[in-house]
Write a structure and sequence with these properties.
By secondary structure, the protein is an alpha+beta fold. The protein has one domain. It contains 13 helices and 15 strands. The strands form 7 sheets. Strands 4-3-8 form a 3-stranded antiparallel beta sheet, with no helix packed on it. A hairpin with a 5-residue loop joins strand 3 and strand 4. Helix 2 packs across helix 8. The two termini are 25 Å apart.
């Protein structure tokens, strides 16, 4: 009990500190709360930030274009722009029915085995991501539809919640060949605050992974291939910590989501079987220059985080204590610290409050995708940061939570927790309605 009391006190102190105005938070709770720069940028840095913002919202067109240099879409792609998936820099959502296409969601693909440098083995027919669309003359790879199975859950006090479990089906696949293929649906995560997470040193993640934790919680880092430094490093980004840093995450999204080449991905992702894709690709130049890539990384890295709200509300204070006492703060760690020296000086040497340990945890069979990714198993997921989550539904109506967007509310997300989070979830289910509402009010304050 003493341990839980100390955690609760720490959480409440962190809440007070997180609310106060500082260089990397903004006191905005409106529709653009995820879209502000950190406040300590110079005039020249602000210009660079807005250049990157324009690229983030840019609609890319098919090359060659005589009207713009921002061309090169495809030959295979999922969306036309970064903001199409990350609207207002926030949360994506899953389709509501089989008739609705994935607008802010993608499907990772692989086959059993280990690929280059220990990563997943891409499908020989479709690569490592399904691209539903192709430019004229290029057939899209296929489509994934989702149906929802509704599942009622009843609390001890009689309150009921309807959960939904996804059932996926591949249709119109260009080459068939889906038998035995591993797949993992992923809803677009928010991008604000990611530069601050990138600035947390790998040594801090390794130290947290080594700590003894209660309730059977473990937590580990993923060791991934760094395509720039040409070595294995601690992963920080992707829903399974499968990417080394923010720059490589963004470059991978350009090539995977839009078919846009860059200094980090100089060739299109056409497989040997996709002859129309290979025929359509004319490598006249890199479609994102080094400067453009740097500017868009600068924009995303320097997005501020919304400040907390309502922290003096007794209900929120009670909910914060329950969040800690239930064991939620073991993984959703309130406070981290950025390194003293970072690529972006405005982000250096800050105490930040992401409510994440950035580690991988086994989340149980219900949330498993069965697809390993470097050293992440098919049951392990990175702890998603919770900062700003209380504004998700107002900024991105219909926002989906968890990796596949199955949870429509924060309470549904809690009830899907299993594995290492199973004990914390059970504690939540035995709270009174008043206590549950308080804990949810705390989450809404983040």
């Amino acid at each position: 009990m003493f341990r839980l009391t100390v955690l609760a006190l720490s959480l409440l102190l962190s809440a007070d500190m997180a609310l106060g105005a500082n260089d990397v938070t903004v006191p905005d709770a409106g529709r653009e709360a995820y879209s502000h720069p950190v406040s300590n940028l110079s005039e020249s840095d602000l210009e660079r930030f807005y250049n990157g913002r324009a690229l983030f919202h840019q609609v890319w067109v098919i090359a060659p274009s005589h009207e713009t240099t921002v061309d090169g879409l495809g030959p295979l792609y999922n969306q036309f722009s970064c903001s199409a998936c990350h609207a207002r820099n926030g949360y994506g959502h899953a389709p509501g029915s089989p008739d609705e296409r994935m607008q802010s969601m993608l499907v990772r693909l692989s086959i059993p085995g280990t690929g280059a440098h220990g990563g997943p083995m891409p499908s020989p027919f479709y690569g490592d991501q399904l691209n539903e669309q192709g430019i004229p003359g290029v057939t899209g790879e296929g489509r994934v539809t989702v149906r929802w199975e509704e599942m009622p859950f009843r609390f001890d006090d009689g309150e009921t919640v309807t959960l939904r479990r996804p059932d996926y089906a591949f249709t119109d696949m260009a080459f068939g060949k889906t038998s035995g293929m591993l797949f993992s649906p992923r809803v677009a995560p928010p991008v604000y605050g990611t530069g601050l997470l990138d600035a947390v040193p790998a040594s801090a993640l390794l130290a947290m992974a080594a700590e003894h934790k209660p309730d059977g919680v473990k937590g580990k880092v993923n060791w991934v291939w760094d395509n720039v430094r040409k070595k294995t490093v601690v992963g920080k980004f992707g829903l399974k910590d499968n990417t080394a840093d923010l720059t490589q995450q963004i470059a991978a999204a350009f090539i995977g989501d839009m078919g846009i080449t860059s200094p980090l991905h100089r060739m299109q992702n056409c497989t040997a079987h996709e002859t129309d894709c290979r025929r359509a690709y004319a490598p006249h130049r890199l479609e994102v220059t080094q400067k453009q890539l740097s500017d868009i990384v600068f924009y995303v890295a320097n997005l501020a985080v919304p400040a907390r709200r309502n922290i003096n509300d007794p209900k929120v204070i009670s909910g914060a204590a329950l969040f800690a006492a239930n064991g939620c703060a073991v993984c959703h760690r309130p406070e981290l610290k950025t390194a003293a020296t970072t690529p972006f000086p405005a982000l250096a040497d800050h105490r930040i409050y992401p409510y994440s340990d950035m580690l991988l945890h086994d989340m149980g069979a219900e949330l498993a995708d069965g697809r390993p990714d470097f050293r992440a198993s098919g049951r392990e997921w990175r702890t998603p940061p919770l900062w700003g989550i209380g504004l998700a539904e107002s900024i991105n109506p219909g926002a989906g939570f968890l990796h596949d967007g199955r949870a429509r509310t924060l309470q549904e997300a809690i009830l899907w927790h299993g594995g290492e989070a199973g004990i914390a979830r059970e504690r939540y289910t035995h709270l009174s309605a008043e206590e549950r509402n308080a804990l949810l009010a705390f989450l809404q304050s983040l």
